Amino acid sequence: MQREFLAEDTVRTHYWHKLNGGKIQCDLCPRKCQLKEGQRGMCFVRACKEGEIVLTTYGRSSGFCIDPIEKKPLNHFLPGTAVLSFGTAGCNLGCLFCQNWDISKSREIDKLADRAEPEIVAKAAKQLGCKSVAFTYNDPVIFMEYAIDIAKECRKMGIKTVAVTAGYISEEPRKEFYKYIDAANIDLKSFSNDFYRKICKAELQPVLDTLKYVYHQTATWLEITTLLIPGHNDSDREVSALSEWIVSELGSDVPLHFSAFHPDYRMMDVAPTPAATLRRARKIAMNSGLNFVYVGNVHDEEASSTYCKKCKKLLIGRDWYEITAYNLDSAGRCNHCGAECPGIFLDTCGNWGQRRQPVRLENFR
After folding, report:
1. I need a surface site. Which of 104, 133, 310, 359 has the fewest CB within 10 A?
2. Regarding predicted confidence, which is higher, 8 or 13?
3. Residue 362 binned pLDDT confidence (cut-offs 50, 70, 90)
4. Whole-prediction pTM value?
């Protein structure tokens, strides 16, 4: 489907409807912003213009960077490979702890300095040796039309696509979005609706619905991240409830990442997450039945590495984002016992390592 532009960078969308009184309701996410002419939704990038909801930042980015895929974090998806990462501006959640707030909370179009048509993004990824393109830094749900068009171009060139998202999306757009996404890391920010309401200005249930939908009804590879914030969502009871829900509703093989919080945005008064808290949470999750549990934002080689769920021997060793050992065959089976490791793997492990390389796409036009 060819996008219909109303103006430069502005395309028509179709997840909205008219209300009595002249307002237009955006139906993209559970927030359901009701807008008058000229108003923008909470996400900032979707606006009411000429009696419809439009995306105002199509083709514009806050910048592109080549990252290790493990940084997304994805540990069971093309290990060791490079991913071309980018975001736009805005977000449809209001997390007080946002660690990309300069992008996700931005209300400045001027921050979107790097222009790139979908075919240019795919072309750049191919020429730069990236195996995938990641929609990250801010939530791709809010610029889904642009993300979908990039994904379509990527598929033509054999490039995978990755969504790093909070999973806050309504049922119908969710179906369309995940048709084009090869892997997703979805934030399960807490297992408390009170936390979601007070800290994220959102609701828990739509996120749980997205997790179940992606796992059970799509071909998208799924991993989950929970940022543990001291005194807010790091209790043994909550970690146990969250882990048990994943086991019962999704299964034991979904990778779960516990990530360390550092003071940022509007939670500068909260201490960083101790490494011991992450290790304790990992132990609780594994005792709950999860086979693959990781820690992030701290240096812990053991808790960052992948072990065979059957023989318990090392499959993929990691030192930060550097692959130090790789004991899987071309079919993703353990070299020690032959058990299958769930995930999406190449014939050999990538060797991108820990590098982070900013790139400009103007040279690929």
Report:
1. 310
2. 13
3. confident
4. 0.96
Based on the domain organization, do 149 and 12 belong to the same domain? no
Q: Which of 218, 242, 255, 195 is nearest to 75 (CA)?
A: 255
Structure tokens at 360: 């400009």
| pLDDT, position 113 | 60
155: phi then psi, degrees, rounded to nearest 5: -60, -35
Residues 16 and 68 in one domain: no
> Does residue 319 lie in a domain region?
no
| Residue 206, phi then psi, degrees to nearest 5 | -60, -30
At residue 112, the pLDDT reads 54
For the chain, how far is it from start to end, CA to CA, in angstroms? 22
- Residue 353 domain boundaries: 60-290+344-359
Angle (CA) 252-256-259 rounded to 5° is: 160
**Would you call 105 exposed, middle or buried from its count of C-beta atoms within 10 A (0-12, 13-18, 19+)?**
middle
